[in-house]
């Protein structure tokens, strides 16, 4: 199963929450402004919460659902900025919940398809070569460029279309995303020696026009199919 996570920007509109465990007083937690892959943002939240109490943990699973926990303790989170709450999948404050607290929805920046996606360029790179003839009429091929590129055919149920459009709209604006070739490899980066790991990507500009037409379309289809091409981001 693949997964596509749009990067998230943390700034003055979504950086703050307040946290406590058991009967301890609330502590204000300010996240560091920046651009994060969702799974990295969750790790950053854990780092910040552990300044309040080392018992805190924050994790994101294969289905992009976030869990906050502190074993044996009662959790309290006040979302000073509701945008952060909505992003992480909660709908209300966490008030007096026995650990753990699991978000009722997946992270809003992530899309986990229930239908299989077709991986049309599984190795993840595209070679461009040219051929020349020597004075002895012996042909040689030269490598001109090597582009890290992934091509997938996305299949999206009608019930998933709104979430998919939301994630794709972020890519249409030029933002990057993290493309997981398989959700069992959330911590394994892509490499030539292991092409099944995750990679940071942007939407190939040559295919954005097609994607925009698809995103603007409606219709009562049961399953949407769209070809996507991603370019690796260093």
Give a brief outline of the structure.
The protein is of the alpha+beta class and 234 residues long. The chain contains four helices and 17 strands.
Description:
The chain has 234 residues and is an alpha+beta fold. The chain has two domains: 7-107, no CATH class; 113-232, no CATH class. 20% of the residues lie in helices and 39% in strands. It contains four helices and 17 strands. The protein has helices spanning 38-52, 82-88, 161-172, 205-216; strands at 3-6, 8-10, 16-21, 27-30, 34-36, 57-60, 66-69, 74-78, 94-98, 101-102, 110-111, 118-119, 125-133, 139-157, 177-180, 199-203, 223-232. The strands form four sheets. Strands 1, 11, 12, 13, 14, 15, 16 and 17 form an eight-stranded antiparallel β-sheet that branches. It has a four-stranded antiparallel β-sheet with strand order 4-3-8-9, with helices on one face. A three-stranded antiparallel β-sheet has the order 6-7-10. Strand 13 (125-133) and strand 14 form a beta hairpin.
What's the arrangement of secondary structure elements?
Layout: E1 3-6, E2 8-10, E3 16-21, E4 27-30, E5 34-36, H1 38-52, E6 57-60, E7 66-69, E8 74-78, H2 82-88, E9 94-98, E10 101-102, E11 110-111, E12 118-119, E13 125-133, E14 139-157, H3 161-172, E15 177-180, E16 199-203, H4 205-216, E17 223-232
Antiparallel strand pairs: 1-11, 1-15, 2-5, 3-4, 3-8, 6-7, 7-10, 8-9, 12-14, 13-14, 14-17, 15-16, 16-17
Helix pairs in contact: 3-4
């Amino acid at each position: 199963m693949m997964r596509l996570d749009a990067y998230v920007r943390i700034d003055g509109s979504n950086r703050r929450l307040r946290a406590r465990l058991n009967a301890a007083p609330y502590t204000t937690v300010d996240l560091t402004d920046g651009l994060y892959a969702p799974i990295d943002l969750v790790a950053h939240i854990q780092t910040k919460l552990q300044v309040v109490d080392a018992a805190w943990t924050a994790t994101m699973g294969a289905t992009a659902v976030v869990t906050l926990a502190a074993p044996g303790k009662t959790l309290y989170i006040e979302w000073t900025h509701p945008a952060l709450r909505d992003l992480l999948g909660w709908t209300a404050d966490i008030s007096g919940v026995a650990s753990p607290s699991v978000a009722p929805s997946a992270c809003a920046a992530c899309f986990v398809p229930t239908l299989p996606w077709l991986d049309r360029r599984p190795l993840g790179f595209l070679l461009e070569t040219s051929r020349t003839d020597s004075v002895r009429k012996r042909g040689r091929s030269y490598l001109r460029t090597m582009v890290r590129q992934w091509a997938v055919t996305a299949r999206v149920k009608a019930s998933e279309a709104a979430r998919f459009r939301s994630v794709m709209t972020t890519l249409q604006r030029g933002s990057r995303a993290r493309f997981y070739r398989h959700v069992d490899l959330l911590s394994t980066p892509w490499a030539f020696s292991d092409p099944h790991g995750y990679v940071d990507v942007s939407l190939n500009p040559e295919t954005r026009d097609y994607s925009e037409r698809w995103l603007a379309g409606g219709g009562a289809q049961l399953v949407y199919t769209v070809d996507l091409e991603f370019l690796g981001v260093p």
